[in-house]
Amino acid sequence: MQFSKRLVATLCLTVVAGVWIALGHGRGMPSPTVPWTPAEVVTPQTLAKEIAGPKSKRPMVVCVGFEFLYRGAHVLGATYKGPAMNPGGLQELRAWAHSIPKNTPVVIYCGCCPMDRCPNVRPAFKALRAAGLSHLHVLEIPHNFNDDWVQKGYPTQKNP
To answer: Any idea what DSSP says for residue 36?
Structure first.
């Protein structure tokens, strides 16, 4: 029996969401404290314009989610440094943050689920802020990366 990549990705997201809900972070539960301000949230439209602009003005875009999602599709030019919910992912993210200038514009995202329930974005943002990054933003993902970025036709890359 063969399964499509979309079906496999949907099943994986369902499992991840189920675990997240079982841990008490699902609907009906209060969302964890948001560590960023509204000014530190960037919309997909804005980020798409920024990465289409001059290279010298593009932010560094970092996926802090699950590797299988990054490989399936990610923001054009994004690097992978996750998942931030795991100690190993956070350690990799912190090491990377200490290797770049503190005033580097950085946008992080996950996209596994709505960002108000995401297990990766908050720890990543907190770690990067603690590492001293001063131009840090988070990509607004109200539903998931597929619906809020890929299906809207924003610049996307896929890895085998």
So the answer is: S
Name the residue with tokens 């699902």.
26
Is the Cα torsion angle 36, 140, 122, 94 positive or negative in sign? negative
What Rg, from alpha-carbon coordinates, does the chain have? 15
- Mutual angle of helices 87-98 and 121-130, in 10-degree steps: 40
| CATH H superfamily, domain 32-157 | Rhodanese-like domain (3.40.250.10)
Residues 135 and 109: their CA atoms lie apart, in Å, by 15
Does pTM top 0.70 for this prediction?
A: yes
Q: How far apart are CA 1 and CA 107, in angstroms?
A: 39
* pLDDT tens series, the chain, 160 aa: 454 555 444 444 444 444 444 444 444 333 458 999 999 999 999 999 999 999 888 999 999 999 999 999 999 999 999 899 999 999 999 999 999 999 999 999 999 999 889 999 999 999 999 999 999 999 999 999 999 999 999 999 987 6
Identify the DSSP state of 76: T
DSSP symbol at 23: I
Contact status, residue 31 vs residue 48, Cβ threshold 8 Å:
no
In the structure encoding, which two tokens stand for residue 74, read together?
């990610």
